[in-house]
Structure formats: structure tokens, C-alpha cells
From TrEMBL:
It comes from Winogradskyella damuponensis. It comes from the Bacteria. Keywords: ATP-binding, Nucleotide-binding. Residues 7-236 form the ABC transporter domain. This is ABC transporter domain-containing protein. PANTHER family: ABC TRANSPORTER G FAMILY MEMBER 20 ISOFORM X1, ATP-BINDING CASSETTE, SUB-FAMILY H, MEMBER 1.
Amino acid sequence: MNNNNVIEAQNLTKMFGDFTAVNAISFEVKKGEIFGFLGANGAGKTTAMKMLIGISKPTSGAAKVAGFDVFTNAEDIKKNIGYMSQKFALYDDLTVKENITFFGGIYGLSRKSIKEKSAILIEELGLEKVASKLVGSLPLGWKQKLSFSVSLLHDPKIVFLDEPTGGVDPITRRQFWEMIYKAAHQGTTVFVTTHYMDEAEYCDRVSIMVNGKIEALDTPKKLKQQFNVANMNDVFLKLARG
């Protein structure tokens, strides 16, 4: 594995019976990069991510994440990454503080570390007044920002975000991306899936999946130049139309 890369995939494939959900995709992600994994719903983004985070075994191909093989070292991968699922991952029937404490324990943090990180996290998110309230009572935007922050509790090398801004308002989306920039600035590699093409502009590089295949991969600027269009949505439309 190249020392500059934290993810490397070669011909990674996932089949469900006769259906090929992810079709021989190859790419790499560099340290500290914000890598956008784009495509329409059903393009194969989430299936590919599940292989990379060690919860779904590939049918064929090869991949390494944080230096660990997806076939043989799935548990080591899980220890070195953060993950925010498409569906809200925290527990609605626990308070904000209880969720942070619970996941801090799952990540193997000491009680002292959990207490310190919890105080910092709650202050940074401005959740002091609701820290003792059930997470289920919070607005979706707050839930999403809290979920992202919890996924970073153990200082992972890579954080995987699956459609993190789905269903939230434009202001919350912008705030969420500010959090992503901050994490990347602090050295965390961010792998983010989205079907919002405007969010591609916020990424260092993007890949675009169509029907299980990566049909384009480069910086947003170069992709717009390549397809002679003004925005990433038009790049995607050209690819989708073949």
C-alpha cells in the first residue's frame, strides 16, 4: 500500500446472486483528503462503502483500508475508522451525554477521556442546554451533527459518512460541511457519499458511480473541464445519459 494512501481498491466487486451491485471498481484515497463518492440512489455507493468498512465481504477484487485487508482484517479496519450511517446511528432513548459515553466505551476510550471529550463536544456543538435530554427529542440537524462528532470520538484515521446531509435544511448542510473541513484540516481523511451534486464542489476529488461502476474520477475542476460544463450536476447528467 502506498504510504500516501489510506484506501486502495482494485477491481472491487460485490454480487448478490446474478446481480452485480458493485462492478470491479478501482481507486485510491489519499491521507487527509475529502473524497466524494457520488452517484444517484441505487448506484452502488452504500454497498461499496460497506465493503470498505468491513461489514460486507467483497465477492472479488482487493482493497485495503488504513493498511488492513478487507478480506482478512475487517475487525482491525473497524478499530481505525469512524462511521456515520445513512440512517441516524445514535440511540433515541438515551440522552446526549449517555450516547457519547456509550460510544466512547465502544471505541475503547478511558472514562477520563470520555468525560473530557464529552465536555468539549457538547460545548462545540452548543448542546449544553439539551445534554441531558433524549436524543430522540432533538431536531434532525442536531442529531446529524452529534452523530458525526461521535464518529470522531476515538480520533480515527478515516471517517466514512453515508449520505450525512440527507433530509436536513441548507443552513445545517453548510454547517455540517464546515465540520467536515475542520476534521480534514486536523488530519482525518473523509470519505463521503452523497447524491447532492453541489456537495461535490466541496471535495478534493470525487468519483461518480453509475450502475455499479466508477465512470469518472478527478477533482471537481478537472471534471467540469473534461465534460465542458459549469457545474457537477451537469457532469453527472452527461454520465448518466451515457
